[in-house]
Amino acid sequence: MKIFAPVCILLLLTSCADDDSSFPVGEDWIESDTRVLYIDTMTVSSSTFKFDSVQVSSTDRLLLGTYTDPIFGRTTSKIFTQLSNSTYTLDDAAVFDSIALILNYDDYFYNDTTEVQTLRIHEVLQDIKVTDDGYFYNTTSFDYNENTVGKVTYTPRPIREDSLHLRLDDAYGSLLFNEIQDNEINNADEFLRYHRGLLLEPDAANTTILGFLPTSTIRIYYSLPNEVEDEDVYSFDMTFNSSYTFHNISSDRSGTYFETLAEQEDEIESDASNGMSYIQSGVSLATRIDLPNLNGLDYIEGNGTLLAANLVVSLNTATETTSLPAGETLSCYIIDQKNIVLGTLYDYDGAEATGTIAAESDEFAQRTYSIPIHYFLDEKSTDSNGHNWYLALLDPDNNQSVNRYGFYGNQEADEDLKLQIILIYAVYDNE
């Protein structure tokens, strides 16, 4: 946290614009001349840090795949799932045909989907259980059989198709089929004693991460030879149990700016990462904002009050491509000096304060977000521990996406892009 001496504040304010106005907000204001100062020169700094883990229980989207990013390294997402069904009966005359993994797209994807992808499916060897606090995290993992029950290749089409059908090994399908048909398995508890779950693991050479719905299934196809239509094919579904299905997201940051981020309290200052701070969802890289206390405003002559305050951060659009757009909002949290979340950022109306697009230009490849921080600064200035308060910026889909952002720091030469806070401060009774 930077501490400003009185002379420093006075020097800063020489570059602030002022405007003569009147504000009908009380008798003292009505009976006095009022100056409104626009202050955009207070020092604000940024850095990048990483939360230890991300809670990923019962997400609306499951992520699967891997890709390499020039800034963030290799990001990989696996899926652990427990299968379930309400009935476990098959006709004695039924004949096994095949088994398939059916993954339902939710239209989300990240990076190149034009290349052939490879997926390996393993049986899990441990009961899939939540951690002691009742959640799954992106770091949660379970032992699995190295032998696969399916290794498949495919070219993803997340926009043109609604699902991905991947045929698994007949031996695995026949095993499940026979256990159910022979009444070795008659209910969900018996099934889970034999088959605790599946791991869906992408090959390291893959180029994309795809989003799938939790309504995905394992489908067993079979026929009934005694039926009139001998060629009729029937099916039996084992659905993903959404309460015990989650994605495990990891990142290999070797050779990147972030390879030294071992603990949550570790930070990479923006001047050590090309003048930028970063966000990457899924693995929960976050931007930390260090804001000054406003004690220096006390040295402005006359009585005054803060009318508005906004944090302004601009996206480096070089971190984007046409197929990898940044989100339209940012989530904001209050954190302490060890980067532990203290709470959500709110405004004076009691609403959640988010970052929204304040300026955007396709011609100049610019996007700037504005975050209301008036209430935060007032609370920070009056709380006994406010000097240890900071802000963390994250993607709203932090637990179910791998979206990434790069923001300009305060070293940026272009005034329209540099990190800054903008204060509107009114002074009256200045005689």
Tell me about this structure:
- The protein is mostly beta strands and 431 residues long.
- It folds into two domains: 6-52 and 263-428, no CATH class; 62-252, no CATH class.
- The chain is built from five helices and 24 strands.
- The protein has helices at 6-13, 27-30, 170-181, 188-194, 374-382, and strands at residues 17-21, 34-39, 45-50, 62-69, 73-84, 95-111, 117-124, 144-154, 163-167, 198-202, 208-212, 217-223, 233-252, 268-269, 276-280, 285-290, 303-316, 329-335, 341-344, 355-361, 366-372, 390-394, 404-408, 420-428.
- Strands 1, 2, 3, 14, 16, 17, 18, 19, 20, 21, 22 and 24 form a twelve-stranded antiparallel sheet that branches. The chain has a six-stranded antiparallel beta barrel with strand order 4-5-13-12-6-11.
Which residues sit in consecutive blocks of at least 5 with pLDDT less than 50? Answer: 1-26
Order of helices and strands: HEHEEEEEEEEHHEEEEEEEEEEEEHEEE
| Rg, nearest Å | 28 Å
Structural class, from secondary structure content?
A: mainly beta
Characteristics of this structure?
12-stranded antiparallel sheet, 9% helix, 2 domains, elongated, 431 residues, 6-stranded antiparallel β-barrel, mainly beta
Topology of this protein?
Layout: H1 6-13, E1 17-21, H2 27-30, E2 34-39, E3 45-50, E4 62-69, E5 73-84, E6 95-111, E7 117-124, E8 144-154, E9 163-167, H3 170-181, H4 188-194, E10 198-202, E11 208-212, E12 217-223, E13 233-252, E14 268-269, E15 276-280, E16 285-290, E17 303-316, E18 329-335, E19 341-344, E20 355-361, E21 366-372, H5 374-382, E22 390-394, E23 404-408, E24 420-428
Antiparallel strand pairs: 1-2, 2-24, 3-14, 3-16, 4-5, 4-11, 5-10, 5-13, 6-9, 6-11, 6-12, 7-8, 7-10, 12-13, 15-23, 16-22, 17-21, 17-24, 18-19, 18-20, 18-22, 20-21
Signal peptide: 1-17
Protein name: DUF4270 family protein
InterPro entries: DUF4270
